[in-house]
Amino acid sequence: MSEMEVTESATEPEPAAETTSIDDNDDDDEHPWPYLRGMFSYIGVKDSSYRMKCLLCLPKNSEILAYKNSPSNLRKHVERKHPNQLKKYEELTSAKRKRPVTETPSTSTNGQMTTFLTTTCSAVSQRSLDKAVLKYGLQPLSLVEQEPFIDFNPAELAFLAEYNAVMSPVAQATNILQAEENVQMGWLLPTINLLTAKLDRVKLTVKYCRPLVDALQAGLKTRFGHMTQDLELIAAAILLPKFRTSWTKDDATIRMGVDYIREHLEAPPLQSDGGNPSSSDEEDFFSSLQSPHTDSSKELEGYLAFSSDRMESLKSFPALCKLSLKLNTPLPASAACERLFSIAGLVFSPRRVTLSSRHFENQLLLRLNKKFLRVQ
């Protein structure tokens, strides 16, 4: 858009200056570019442009039309009519583009955090602590890089040290349970049990983060409390050479797990006497009550006394190895179930709705296990 300038001779400079002052007061609230108030005043709107008055041209009356989304016409006017003011114009526009940095909020926030930590001490609720973390802990980089924020006072440093001591074992336990290695089910109870013990020890030393420890312990009890009495999970932990019976000091829990293992150990195949004439029918009938139980108990006792913590050591105890594979192989995801239902939908198509349950099950079984079929 081209510029439009109207030039008039001012016979009385004083009234012109007074008019300029009035214009400046009127455009305080509506000026589209407030940082240029010292150079241009706002007159009004014409079509899709602003009507601006150049204060540098006084006492001449110079009106410029500028786009609503850019003051480029104002710059062209300054460049052509007032080249000595171009540097000032560029400084004003560049200062507007820079990100403002204020130090007052940092000082205020720092002081509020100090007041919160020093006045509440240990008598702070979990709700207040959560609000404080959200209010003071999540700050932009432009704020935390300032010197008043970096210079923590002793109370703040104590809070951060306690928070680190509380959350470090939680982070370690989370990494263990969500890792792609050591995914056996037997890792669950030892990890939760050790995490609970560490939180109990930390709770005795913290002052500000005690509500956080209470909340973590309550969450662990709610989510995993019922699992501590699950016989399969206890046995799974015992059947991992890394833990055996060392992961808990509760003798009753270990006893339950060992009894469960004894009951579910598969007996080795019986060896017949080869028709020994000295054995009677009664001895043959009751022989199964002695030999398998004795062999399984010896194997379990040998495993518990074994010193190696490597998984390969389970191969020395065939029955225990087989039970360990059964208990320590959880279903890590629902992908297998979803795949089963997807294939079932392909088998039970609209054209085969009259299939009986038996035929449908057989076809689904063949479809899922076709890689094991050998066509001759």
Lay out the secondary structure:
Elements lengths: L12 H14 L13 E7 L2 E6 L8 E5 L4 H10 L4 H12 L6 H17 L5 H12 L3 H4 L2 H4 L3 H24 L10 H16 L6 H15 L6 H8 L12 H14 L16 H6 L4 H15 L12 H10 L7 H13 L9 H12 L8
Antiparallel strand pairs: 1-2, 2-3
Helix pairs in contact: 8-9, 9-10, 11-12, 16-17
Keywords summarizing the entry:
mainly alpha, 3-stranded antiparallel β-sheet, 17 helices, elongated
Question: Could you characterize the architecture of this molecule?
Answer:
Mean pLDDT is 78; it is low at 1-28 and 101-109. The longest helix is centred in the middle third of the chain and has 24 residues, at 154-177. The protein has 376 residues and is mostly helical. The protein has a 3-stranded antiparallel β-sheet. Helix 8 packs antiparallel against helix 9 (188-203), helix 9 (188-203) runs antiparallel to helix 10 (210-224) and helix 16 (335-347) crosses helix 17. The protein is built from 17 helices and 3 strands. Helix content is 55%, strand content 5%. It has helices at 13-26, 72-81, 86-97, 104-120, 126-137, 141-144, 147-150, 154-177, 188-203, 210-224, 231-238, 251-264, 281-286, 291-305, 318-327, 335-347, 357-368, and strands spanning 40-46, 49-54, 63-67.
In summary, what is this structure?
The protein contains 17 helices and 3 strands. It has 376 residues and is mainly alpha-helical. The protein has a 3-stranded antiparallel beta sheet with strand order 1-2-3.
